[in-house]
Structures are given as structure tokens and as C-alpha cells.
């Protein structure tokens, strides 16, 4: 309940200034130092606003326990703000292995603290501890790794354009966040906390691929695309390669989620969360939807087309909200269905709008999609048949283990050998691993396949 509201403020945590500094071909020491102090000032302001909002959050949800939860979570804005520009420095330097290690360490430590607090009986405070630990550990590590100490803030160092760029990105994020999170607020208001918990877990599970792929591939792709933004041929080639990798990972996850929704919930969350299974199944199409549309944010941001991205967000928001509102009277299942349908209807208009005036065509996009999609559909046939005819003879864990193994074996065989994509993906992974994927010698001027 609290994070659905405070998450709005978190969109302002860096004011888009980390993205702005990465997108620029060059930034000065004075600019980065000034941006650091601006980020810290924004963090203090957001922390204060969150504390002031605590009584209103309590009143809105009619839940007194939310007061101190909100107060404590406000500290997260300070932790995040202190490390924004340090993280941007690592991203500009293409030190993605270091960033990944920092993410992994902060995830392990924050999860361990959350589990430890839960075992000791702290209840929902375990989630609060876990939420705060992540940004705190991450900020400490990026500061230690970069060893960068900001100088004094200065005027007249040319940060006006960076502020406008970052402000547009922040507004874009605010609009998108409102569109993708309003349903949780509405469910909490009209259906209660337990329904939000059930829907929230199903939503979180369906959103894991989107978040992980955006954080792992998106950072690399955005930085690389920013470096080749003025070379349309290389820009097209690299974007399509990254797009192909995202789809190759997301399409099978979408099919697997739909096939094993009930068993996945049972294995991952336990039998108490059984009610989340049909909601999760209804949300699985959004895995593919976001895989198809989210990478275009990398493209538009890297080319400096942030205003177009904002206009797209302003159009998609009422469409998604309409889907929520139509489904709201039917509870979490109705909301999940309305959400998935609305997002599915938006795929083609989104792609058409994003590629307009770029070196990428709609044909490029769907040619990239067709091979992992066909491979996934073929791979799903045998696991589906096993579920229908032999499913009752196995436990949920065995059904998932056997079904997923068979699916992945067939999928990899289809995609790499039947579709002839083995050399393409091997070359792509080698380029990403070596960090030379944006060099002229490493980017082939050809689309996937």
C-alpha cells in the first residue's frame, strides 16, 4: 500500500539526470559535481514530502499501521540520491560487470535481512528493512568503487540542457508509473489489503522478466546506442541485436508462465498463494508486450527523442486506465484481464510511433519476433500434452521441472539450429561479454537472421 504511493515520488529520485549524463557524448567534472548536489537536494525534498504525506496515506487506506512504515521508507530517497551520479559514472565507463556485482550483492544482503527479520517475527517490517537495505548497500558500494568525490556546485557550467532532458524523462516516468500502478491503489481502496497482496504477488512474478532484462540488457544497450546515435546504420544493427536477445529470452518465459501458472505459484510462493495463480496467468501476456515495447525507450532516449517518448506515455495512460476501470468491478482477475488486453492492443501503435523517422522499420521488428515466437509455440506442444495426460501423476515441482526442461531443450534446438540462429547469438553474447559490441568491427551491418 505504501510503496504504491511513495513509488510515485521515487520517480523524482534522480530527476533523470543520470540518464542525461550517460546520453551525452561528453560531460565535464563541474557538470557532474553540480548534478550530484542537485540529486542530493531532490532526495532531501522527496524524503520530507514523504514524511508529510504519511497522515494522508493513513487516512486514504484507513490503516493506522502505515504511518511509521511511510516515515521509515522516506529514508530510501536519501540513500538513493547520494549514489546516482556515482552509478552514472560507472555506466558511462561501460563498467557493467561492476554494476552487476553491486546489484547482486545489494540484492543478497537486502533479501537476507528481510528473511532474517521475518523469521524473528517482525512481520511487515521485514519488507521495510529489505526495501531500505537495497539502496543503502548499493550507494555505499558505488561510492567505494568509483572513489569519486564531488566538487562544489557551480553556475554557468551548461547543465540547463541536461536539466531539461532529465526533467522530460522524469515526467515521462511519472506518467508511465501512474498508468502501470493505479490498479493497485484502486484494488487496495475498493477490495482491501488482502486482494492487493494476492494481485501484487502475481504482478511481481510476471514483472520479474521485464525488470531484470531492462536492468541487465537495458543499461548496456542504452549506453552503447548513445555512443552510436549519429550513425544510423550501426544504431539499427545494434538495436536489433539487443532487441533480438530480449525477445529470445522473453517469449519462452511468456509461454512457460501461461503453461505452468498454477504449478509455478505453488512451487515459488506456496499453497497459501493459490488464488494468485489465475491472476498470474492473465498477466503473462504482458511479459511479451513489455519485451516488445520497452526496448524502444532505449532507442528514443539514446537519440534524444525524449519528447516523443513523453507523448507516447500520455496516450497509453488513458488506454491502460480504461482497461483497469472496466475490469475493477470483477476484482483482481478482471483488472488483470483488462490490463493485459489494453497493453496487447497498444503493441502495434507503439512500435509504429517509435520507429517513425528512424533507420528501423516495423518489418525489422516483426522479423526479429517471428523466430523465437515460432520456436516457443513448437516447444510448448509436448509439455502441454504431458500436462493434459500425465499431469495428475506428478507433484507440482516435478511437473514444472520436467515440463520446463523439455520446453527449453526443444526451444533451444528450434531457435539455434532449425531457425539457424546459433552463430548470431554466440557472436552477440561474445560481443556483450567483451564490451566491444559497439565498436565498428564488432557490429555487423545486418539484421538478425
Short account of what is shown:
This protein has helices spanning 2-10, 17-23, 29-61, 66-73, 75-92, 96-119, 125-146, 160-190, 193-227, 232-259, 261-268, 276-283, 285-293, 295-302, 306-327, 331-355, 362-390, 396-418, 422-434. The chain has 19 helices and no strands. The protein has 449 residues and is an all-alpha fold.
Report on this structure.
The protein has helices spanning about 1-10, 15-25, 30-60, 65-75, 75-90, 95-120, 125-145, 160-190, 195-225, 230-260, 260-270, 275-285, 285-295, 295-300, 305-325, 330-355, 360-390, 395-420, 420-435. The chain has a domain at about 1-160. Helices cover about 80% and strands about 0% of the residues. Residues about 435-449 have low confidence and may be disordered. The chain is mostly helical and about 450 residues long. The protein has 19 helices and no strands.
Amino acid at each position: 500500500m505504501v510503496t504504491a504511493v511513495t513509488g510515485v515520488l521515487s520517480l523524482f529520485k534522480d530527476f533523470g539526470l543520470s540518464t542525461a549524463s550517460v546520453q551525452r557524448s561528453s560531460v565535464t567534472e563541474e557538470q557532474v559535481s553540480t548534478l550530484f548536489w542537485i540529486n542530493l537536494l531532490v532526495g532531501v525534498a522527496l524524503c520530507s514530502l514523504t514524511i508529510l504525506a504519511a497522515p494522508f496515506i493513513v487516512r486514504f487506506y484507513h490503516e493506522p499501521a502505515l504511518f511509521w512504515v511511510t516515515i521509515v521508507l522516506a529514508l530510501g530517497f536519501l540513500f538513493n540520491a547520494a549514489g546516482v551520479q556515482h552509478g552514472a559514472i560507472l555506466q558511462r565507463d561501460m563498467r557493467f560487470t561492476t554494476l552487476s556485482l553491486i546489484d547482486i550483492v545489494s540484492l543478497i544482503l537486502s533479501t537476507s535481512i528481510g528473511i532474517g527479520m521475518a523469521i524473528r517475527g517482525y512481520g511487515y517490517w521485514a519488507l521495510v528493512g529489505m526495501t531500505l537495505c537495497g539502496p543503502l548497500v548499493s550507494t555505499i558500494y558505488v561510492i567505494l568503487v568509483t572513489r569519486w568525490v564531488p566538487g562544489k556546485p557551480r553556475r554557468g557550467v551548461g547543465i540547463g540542457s541536461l536539466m531539461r532532458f532529465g526533467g522530460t524523462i522524469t515526467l515521462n516516468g511519472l506518467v508511465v508509473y501512474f498508468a502501470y500502478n493505479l490498479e493497485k491503489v484502486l484494488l487496495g481502496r475498493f477490495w482491501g489489503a488482502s486482494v492487493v497482496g494476492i494481485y501484487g504477488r502475481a504482478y511481481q512474478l510476471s514483472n520479474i522478466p521485464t525488470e531484470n532484462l531492462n536492468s541487465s540488457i537495458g543499461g548496456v544497450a542504452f549506453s552503447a546506442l548513445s555512443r552510436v546515435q549519429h550513425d544510423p546504420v550501426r544504431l539499427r544493427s545494434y538495436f536489433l541485436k539487443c532487441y533480438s536477445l530480449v525477445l529470445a529470452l522473453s517469449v519462452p518465459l511468456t509461454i512457460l508462465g501461461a503453461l505452468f501458472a498454477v504449478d509455478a505459484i505453488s512451487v515459488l510462493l506456496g499453497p497459501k498463494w493459490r488464488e494468485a495463480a489465475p491472476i498470474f496467468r492473465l498477466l503473462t501476456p504482458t511479459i511479451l508486450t513489455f519485451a516488445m515495447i520497452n526496448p524502444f525507450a532505449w532507442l528514443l532516449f539514446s537519440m534524444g527523442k525524449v519528447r516523443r517518448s513523453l507523448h507516447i506515455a500520455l496516450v497509453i495512460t488513458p488506454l491502460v486506465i480504461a482497461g483497469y476501470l472496466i475490469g475493477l468491478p470483477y476484482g483482481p482477475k478482471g483488472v488483470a484481464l483488462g490490463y493485459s488486453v489494453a497493453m496487447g492492443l497498444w503493441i502495434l501503435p507503439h512500435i509504429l510511433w517509435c520507429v517513425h523517422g528512424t533507420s528501423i522499420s516495423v518489418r525489422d521488428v516483426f522479423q526479429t519476433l517471428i523466430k523465437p515466437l515460432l520456436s516457443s509455440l513448437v516447444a510448448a506442444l509436448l509439455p502441454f500434452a504431458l500436462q493434459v495426460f500425465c499431469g495428475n501423476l506428478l507433484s507440482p515441482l516435478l511437473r514444472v521441472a520436467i515440463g520446463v526442461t523439455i520446453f527449453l531443450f526443444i526451444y533451444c534446438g528450434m531457435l539455434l539450429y532449425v531457425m539457424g540462429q546459433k552463430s548470431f547469438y554466440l557472436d552477440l553474447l561474445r560481443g556483450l561479454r567483451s564490451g566491444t559490441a559497439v565498436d565498428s568491427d564488432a557490429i555487423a551491418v545486418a539484421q538478425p537472421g
